[in-house]
Amino acid sequence: MYKMNIRFHETTKTFHLFNDRLSYIICVLENGHLGQLYCGKRIHDKEDFTYLVEKAPRPMTSYVYEGDRTFSLEHIRQEYPVYGSTDYRHPAVEILQENGSRISDFRYVSHTISEGKPLLPGLPATYTEADDEAATLCIALKDPVTQIRLELLYTIFAGEGALARSARLVNEGSLPVHLLTAMSFSLDLPDKDYVWMQLSGAWARERHIKNRPLEQGILAIDSMRGNSSHEHNPFMVLKRPSATETQGEVLGFSLIYSGNYRIQAEVDTHDTTRITVGINPSGFDWKLEPGENFQTPEAVMVYSANGLNDMSQTFHRLYRRRLARGYWRDRPRPILNNNWEATYFDFTEDRLVEIAAKAKECGVELFVLDDGWFGERSNDYAGLGDWFANKDRLPNGIAGLSQRIEALGMKFGLWFEPEMVNKDSDLYRAHPDWILQTPGRRTSHGRNQFVLDFSRKEVVDCIYGMMETILSQSKISYIKWDMNRSITECYSAALPADRQGEVFHRYILGVYDLYERLTSAFPHVLFESCASGGGRFDPGLLYYAPQGWASDDSDAVERLKIQYGTSMCYPISSIGSHVSVCPNHQVFRQTPLHTRANVAYFGTFGYELDLNGLPEEELREVKEQIAFMKEYREILQFGTFYRLKSPFEGNETVWMSVSDDKKTALVGWYRVLNGVNMPYTRVQLQGLNPDMVYTNLRSGTTHYGDELMNLGLLTSDATSGEVPSGEKACGDFESRIYILKAKEC
Ligand code: DGJ
User: Annotated active-site positions, please?
Assistant: First the structure.
């Protein structure tokens, strides 16, 4: 058994990247470009796969070689195609040259195969900790006219059906060029027999699953907002129509990037499918001077022959262990209490300490002070940019408050929105030219705030200085980094006219730079990303912040869809999830306290309310919830997660997490509306050891693993019968956690 391998077959100029799960085969075509031969389940290696370059004379087709009526790029599957020299589909790269031409011709020059994986300077990317975890192929190509060198990086990971790709363009010529398109990933598939799945939504209803069959033409999701967006997550799945959670071929595509992006499938009228993933070409224009280079973000493709759960588990493992970094990567996350929904802007130091004290009494480990602690911030019209404590509310500053919280025996966390400024702030008054704004035009606001020009180093330096001061003077263990509006009228006062197409990307590089500096200087601080909830919940930020606030909608029923969709790509340990007050502040729904917790357990877990407001009985329940989470969070956050029943398909949702040794499993069962005289119900579990005997701690019954996985776990309750009443009664929004423990534990 091999972990992974990359072979080059000299006689056929073929590369085969493979491990136990995946084969990816490409070759050098007769014109020097790269052809795509196969992407799918592992097959045997051999010298010659070039029969897969199918060629035929076709009417109304243009051909590369005079006299040869078979070689047309329009009909050849490629790896990093260009437009306009016999291929009419959307390209992976487009370069505007000094003479106005956009034609390129990248021909193979050389390649290297190395162990491990290189870092991408200034950009988040997957990484290795030991050389035998991955192997990397770098193929160099060159355009003979512009002398632009193109380096395509391919990394295959040991034992995972995952391939990471990115591209680097180096100007080795003597004239500047403009990169108009520089995608991270391009793949031509031989058919279109797929269902496209995306995660879409809006503020407070992020990452809902949407499916539609591929058809001839173009299907795309993208962002042009400057952030990866609430609307469409930078993630897409192609699944065979018969694929399910547990079987069938699926391909997942994920971009490790937080800015404008596009993920597109172009199906031509011969039914081949071209996937492109990368920075959104719309609005992008990067000037590359002689001697300069441009590195694209990284895209990750996961192939699974065993359905969506297996694909998600691959993303979870890779992103949790080899994208997320730092002290908190492998540590169970502290149970926190955030004051936002408890107080909004209306608090004093004593009030905060009162909330924290009650939380401490219940077992909460971290108190987080949200928006409103700085500058003149008493509403959302003022203060952003002034990162020093508001002395009216916090007379002893953040240092004083953090000491009081620590004295309670808790850790202290703080909210920032580093990229933003209000016009009513000292920072804006001193530097009105530091915001993104187009000369002579109206500058639109969002939530009364403006976006700082993070493409400028002096701006990032200034914000770093203020944050560094607070962090070094106070006892801060956690930072929530928010971002509450998208970018409009994008233009930087610091860049010339022919570089304005770089601003969106430079902005995100500035965000990454600030994250990198803060996480390096304060390695023990836990960062949680946020953008009005889940507006920038993407793999790029996972590199710096191992968890993200998944949505501003904290209602348990709404969260079923949000967290279920999010789990398609993102590890459970990254999903910020809190119990909030009822009636819920977003949908005004009244759900039982246990259901709010049962949903939030499958995430980082915390509270978003003032526990002082709860009756004794509920406080007792909260204490039990916290004790439960402390006991099981390692399995909930780092175990193997399975989706069993989808909230998008019915009244019930079921998911579960299994410990690595398979001795403990936690099944979350949720029913939205109650019923009467309903069917008996059961659910087939996943991931157990078929030979182990598990005790169901709820019923006290024992079952073999194969029994629970085939015959199923019985979930029937008082709804199967007459009108439920008495002790066994259940209402709407009912839920349960089933704990299954193997006998010998
Ligand atoms: C949006 C976030 O998603 C909320 O949790 C909260 O931090 C507010 N911003 C504060 O303004």
Answer: 482, 552
